[in-house]
DUF493 domain-containing protein (Planktosalinus lacus), 96 residues
Amino acid sequence: MNSDQKTVEFYKKLKEKLSNDTLWPSNYLYKFIVPSDEEKVFQIKEAFKSHEANIQLKESSKGNFVSVSIHVRMKNPDAVIEKYLEVSYIEGIISL
């Protein structure tokens, strides 16, 4: 199975879990780790600017990475996945 197939399968399972476990619309917590780069953090913030998101940043102890936690109300599992895909192009991003 190549990485594209794994990605599709991952999001399929995530959608199923979110659909079964949550009543929508609902609050959702995104967690990302990115290299300490203001532009990368800005790109994540931009992806959520149209939402009333509570964004918290925490720098790693050595200052090499930034943890980005985003509390936001999402309308359905597809909207959750859409945001993951929207930020997936950011170089070095890790979605938790």
Observations:
- The mean pLDDT is 95.
